[in-house]
Amino acid sequence: MQSSATFHDLNGASVFITGGGSGIGAALTEGFLRQGAKVAFVGRSDASEFVDQMEQEIGARPLFIQCDITDIPALQAAIGQSAEAHGPIKILVNNAANDQRHQTAEVTEEFWDWSQEINLKAYFFACQAVADGMKQLGGGSIINFSSISYMMGNAGYPAYVTANAGINGLSRALAREFGPDHIRVNALAPGWVLTQKQLDLWADPDALAAHLDRQCLKDHLEPQDIVDAVLFMASQTSKMMTGQTMVVDGGVVVTG
């Protein structure tokens, strides 16, 4: 992966990413490392091989903390560990999510609670945990990953769609609350990004062709497209942008 722009203020910044060891999250970790940031990330699966790869390719080793983000005390402890290692967190990227497909008739109370815990609840408590450190720094940037799924009204995963709409509301509310301390809170809503997981599970030729037909831009989204947007939102280049949802989807939905 090659950086398309350099954001000088990200050099040396303390960054914390949830789900930063695979898929879009791994691309985010790499992107911030290439900007010179000090990156810590959590993930449920072992990411030691990825950490070694980053050190070999970039010369910088991210801090990996194995953690299930639905375990809020463990998530809070991981954020504290990151701050001890790299200094108060300046940039939080709430990226981890689970878009498991499901039908309304199949949803149990346990499944509903699990979906909200991983896709929304953990986001709130991560934001809460970094707020004091960002105040000490005189500001910071929080980027909450949402999805265009709720804008499209997609069927096939109603609990996930509900959580993504909630992320938009959460980001607006916290932007208002945290703004006086120069902490910016924005959401990022990607379209269909062709990670390996998507290719393995859902991206059959017919589905890809149908989705591409809905896009204004006739190119499939790649993780780098999302990384570039996140780096912009994290940096002082976007210092007066808060309470917003940025859509990166090739032109499927139209905001405003």
Written account of the structure:
By secondary structure, the chain is an alpha/beta fold. It has a single domain (8-248), classed as NAD(P)-binding Rossmann-like Domain (Rossmann fold, 3-Layer(aba) Sandwich), CATH 3.40.50.720. The protein contains 9 helices and 7 strands. The protein has helices at 23-34, 48-58, 72-86, 109-137, 149-152, 158-178, 196-201, 205-214, 223-234, and strands spanning 14-18, 38-43, 63-66, 91-94, 140-145, 183-190, 245-248. It has a 7-stranded parallel sheet, sandwiched between helices. Strand 4, helix 4 (109-137) and strand 5 form a beta-alpha-beta unit. The radius of gyration is 17 Å and the shape is globular. The protein starts with 13 loop residues before the first strand and ends in an 8-residue tail after the last strand.
List the helices and strands and how they pair.
Elements: E1 14-18, H1 23-34, E2 38-43, H2 48-58, E3 63-66, H3 72-86, E4 91-94, H4 109-137, E5 140-145, H5 149-152, H6 158-178, E6 183-190, H7 196-201, H8 205-214, H9 223-234, E7 245-248
Parallel strand pairs: 1-2, 1-4, 2-3, 4-5, 5-6, 6-7
Helix pairs in contact: 1-9, 3-4, 4-6
